[in-house]
């Protein structure tokens, strides 16, 4: 029975990450028509509506402390992570952002070690150092010349840190026994609430012309209903079955999907420095994976 549950968790994690690996491309396309904040609000309001239709039952929060977990998950996993990611895509390539965000499992492990009072092994620290070195190479590469403009890549790294916090919080919420869809919907609600001040400050005025374009509507539907509503729910189910750290390991697959899609759809080409940085990131993640897979989260 336990093996069957784990098999489902692994399958859901792989499918979710495969979809998420393409979201960098979809967001890059939408940034030609909307601001990062506009994409974020439309995406998660529609996602919340879809989850409400899929599971209309009211969520009964067991404790006010649990409410803080929900709020923290909405703040880090919805607002901070996706806002930083969307803004980062305006500065850097989808390939770069996809590789850098793949460091999220390491931050998940760090925050889980702090929460569970565990010690990080030397192997994990070495892997983390290799990955960060790779990010440095990626950040200072663009086309055929090295340019000191790492804003987007630094924002992507901060997004990975935010996802690490979200992963730990969602694992705790899963342990409390909440229904995955209801839990995801409540997280989305907090995410949208936290977005409102940002929207008020930056403005919200999507053009009707953009919304009438089929490719824009299809991309918004993909991000809202599949990549957000469905995939957040499947990810939370995977976390419940496998644990936060073991599930996060599958994020390593995301940049492979992103790089391939970026080359096919956006015709992005990876510079030599960025390629070398990508190799270092993957090497660091693989070194760390030995520790991650053994602990299991």
Describe the structure.
The protein has 297 residues and is mostly helical. 79% of the residues lie in helices and 0% in strands. The chain is built from 13 helices and no strands. Helix 3 (64-89) packs antiparallel against helix 7 (151-175).
Q: Which features does this protein show?
A:
0% strand; globular; 297 residues; mainly alpha
Give me the number of helical elements. 13
| Helical amount | over 70%
Biggest sheet, in brief? Answer: none
**Please, what is the average pLDDT?**
81
Question: What is the secondary structure topology, with strand pairs?
Answer:
Blueprint (H helix, E strand, L loop, with lengths): L1 H29 L5 H19 L9 H26 L4 H8 L2 H13 L5 H18 L11 H25 L4 H23 L5 H4 L2 H29 L1 H5 L5 H13 L5 H24 L2
Helix pairs in contact: 1-4, 1-10, 1-12, 2-3, 2-8, 2-10, 3-7, 3-8, 4-7, 4-12, 5-7, 6-13, 7-10, 8-10
Summarize the structure.
The protein is mostly helical and 297 residues long. It has helices at residues 2-30, 36-54, 64-89, 94-101, 104-116, 122-139, 151-175, 180-202, 208-211, 214-242, 244-248, 254-266, 272-295. It has 13 helices and no strands.
